[in-house]
Amino acid sequence: MIYINGRFLLQEQTGVNRFAYELCKALHQSGIFFILLCPHGEIKMCYDTAGFSIKHCGWGKSHIWEQLFLPIFFLKTRGKHLLVNFTGIGPIALKNKIMTIHDLGFMVNSKWYSLSYILLYKTLTPLSAATSLKILTVSEFSKNEIMRLLNVKKDKISVIYNAVSSLFMEPDTNYQYSEKKEKYILAVSSIDPRKNFATLLKAFSMLKDTDIKLYIAGGQNRIYSISVEELSANISSEKIKWLGRVSDAELKRYYEGASCFVYPSLYEGFGIPPLEAMACGVPVVVSDIPPIREVCGDTALYVDPLNQKDIAEKIALIINDRELQEELRTKGRARCQAFGWTQSARTLSAVIAELQDRFCMH
């Protein structure tokens, strides 16, 4: 029997939680039966769980549920079962499990995270990796990071790429969104230090185009104490719009109305927003870092994320060059076809089947 750690269903949707949700949908659509295990509580509205088999066990949304109640559940359950963890760390006490490591940012730069977060993940991640049958990750870059920093053998790691939700792939021929009348640059991410909004705002203030605005969509990161107001203190409130969390339908409309999309992240495992932007036909400016190169290929303008002048110049270049805009739009839409949740679910299914055969988990 396949069980999936469904703790994410009680949390707001993030890039990591989207990975979990979209893979669950794709596995379900491909006819693979699984049971989602999650704590007692209210499932967030952003997840459509119609058709999913869900079993509630234990209480709490924290790692305590994962490390305590999940192992207790399996102690009471007969037979050999496989637990798939798409988010979090996964219960260390269980050996019949797959864990997912999206990135190892907490081992790369401690300034990006709270002390409690660093201590938790630096302690538990290596332990869970050691006791897992398989480790999933979202890029070849992250695979190499796991091998380098956690000393995990290559054949224990499988790359399952992120992809774009089908909503973003559908052209909106009746698009009449009011924001289309306003010229703006769009950035999408949680307000997180490694997303590099401080440098983006400095770059934006250097633009000579006085008519353009900056829209930022994404929720406040609970481990990052600085507020959006503090970040934008030196920029006119008329020039910047903090959208907060928005639905996928709203986000698609913001993408479609943007003059360009900017993603100056300092560190990623993958980075879904640039793909979403390209799927919506928006030219993108992204950080010149290995995982983003792996995702975007030759379909974006690359910048040094620490160089505000470079970011400003590349934004201006896209805004003022219609031929370049069209070239990037065409390349971007084509690039998105290389990533799909169906393909990723197929790769994951093969990983699961191999483990079931090897350890007789049918």
TrEMBL record:
Domain spans labelled Glycosyltransferase subfamily 4-like N-terminal: 15-164
Name recorded for this polypeptide: Glycosyl transferase family 1 domain-containing protein
SUPFAM superfamilies: UDP-Glycosyltransferase/glycogen phosphorylase
Top-level taxon: Bacteria
InterPro entries: Glyco_trans_1, Glyco_trans_4-like_N
A Gene Ontology molecular function term of the record: glycosyltransferase activity
Gene Ontology terms describing biological process: lipopolysaccharide biosynthetic process
Residues annotated as domain Glycosyl transferase family: 179-334
Membrane-spanning parts: none
Keywords: Transferase
PANTHER family linked to this entry: GLYCOSYLTRANSFERASE WBBK-RELATED
